[in-house]
Amino acid sequence: MATVLISPLILTTINGGFHGGVIIISAEAALDPLCAASHEWFCSPTDFDSSDTQEKLLSHITSPLKCEPFHNDEFPPPGAVPDAYVHSICADDNDPNCGDCLTRATQLMRDNCQGKDGAQYGTEQCCVRYEKKRFCRA
């Protein structure tokens, strides 16, 4: 069970997300229903099965990705279950600083959620979220 400090509006959006840990999200600066700008990170309490999955996944996030499945295997067999789902956005996808913001967000995830199978970090400019469990519709 997760401890959630959040407005009821966003709570209904992320309800059913992580199965543990602490989620801190600021309601005043939500970029979209799947990712909030809190200047806080949250991490899943569990790790990926493979130690390199998180690094490959975070290296993959260089531009906005709308709820994409991620496979650690470069050529997954047809019908393979993704290792994670990734959602990364910028307040303005055409902003030349969008990629830099996503890079800073992924670095904070590396530093604070090492090896975890789910994490989120967001600012008013961008937000990155990934989880092992599908949290959105692709």
Automatic annotation (TrEMBL):
Superkingdom field: Eukaryota
Span of domain Gnk2-homologous: 36-135
Keywords: Repeat, Signal
PROSITE patterns found in the cross-reference section: GNK2
Keyword Signal listed: yes
Protein name: Gnk2-homologous domain-containing protein
